[in-house]
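Structure ticket #2291
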Amino acid sequence: MIATIQPSSLSGTITAPASKSSMQRACAAALVRKGETLIHNPGISNDDKAALGVIKALGADWEMENGDLKVTSNGVNAATNEVNCGESGLGIRMFAPLVALNDSEITINGEGSLLTRPMDFFDEVLPQLDVEVSSNSGKLPLKLKGPLQPKNITIDGSLSSQFLTGLLMAYAASDAKDVTITVTNLKSKPYVDLTLKVMEAYGLKAPENINYEQFYFGLETSNTQATFVDYTVEGDWSGGAFLLVAGAIAGNIVVRGLDVTSTQADKAVLTALMDCGSKISIQSDEIEIAPGDLKAFQFDATDCPDLFPPLVALAAYCKGTTVIEGVNRLTHKESNRALTLQEEFAKLGIEITLQDNLMLIKGGTGVKGATVHSRHDHRIAMACAVAALKAEGETVIEEAGAVSKSYPNFYEHIQSLGATVSVENTSVKAV
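Resolution: structure written out below.
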């Protein structure tokens, strides 16, 4: 798919998409608990669809009812010997420990960039929990044979908190008692808060969080007696960040559906938008945003690395040099996002310098329309699209369909706000 974006002015009101972080956790929790779950505002992204495929393979039944998702589960009981996580990094990291609860060998596979992501964590950690593990030299496919036995264990949280999320869910499913998961160098703590919040909402046994260093499962039994759970998926601050930045560059717009009390890490985009001088009004149910006299800002994205792409688009229009910390978190994404952002934004005339753990963006020099490539990375595609809104000339995004991973209707949404966008499906059908 190719998307062509002309310089545009935005106005109007838009509702942010459903959070795939919240949706995928909601699916996992619905699988783990026994009973019926009704999930409101379910996500429609490719990652969300992959999560639904995984929970079905692991024994849950689901159906759509009047726009809501109804899940029925009797716990983790695999119905097949293979699951596919699509391209979802959260999916593989969260569901692998749940797969390992089964006593038969199950193969976990994926697609696209997920095939190249390191899975060494499972090779190193799961055998300590009595799980037989076989991987492709630290890559997918991954073969697991359990059942996983909860034990006192220490893990490294520097790569991602998503590994911890999977273990917390698996320990809850196993009704772990008097065991502790100790974590060193934990990153993205707000996403751990989201996991614990979902577990509590579902009545799953949540551990005591001791300063984000130890997660202790006590002697009490798991509270999963409720036969029905009603859960609403949050609006997505990750996708919403692109809408808010679009408003700061080319607004005035109103974004609804984002909970300002959310534990999602990417809510921190509000800090950057205020610091750079955008005109922003934050209400409990909506955020109004418009361009201001934009100036360079400093931002620590260590706990919210998914904000790098929208913040780079924002920084391109901020006078001076913006400094964003946390580059080390970008290596194992859909692409090496630090290098990808540097190379693709260079095509737009924006100079980005990488210094150790810092990214320096020289903004306010003018964005020039060009042909760029998503590198099959959904957030790169959206960052380029947002940056194109006030560029000099049109911008063409190759492999623009990458947005389907997290935000399938992104182009339609910015189009509804007044962006001039044309999308061409370039797939060739065999004759």
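Closing remark: The CA atoms of residues 278 and 337 lie 25 Å apart.
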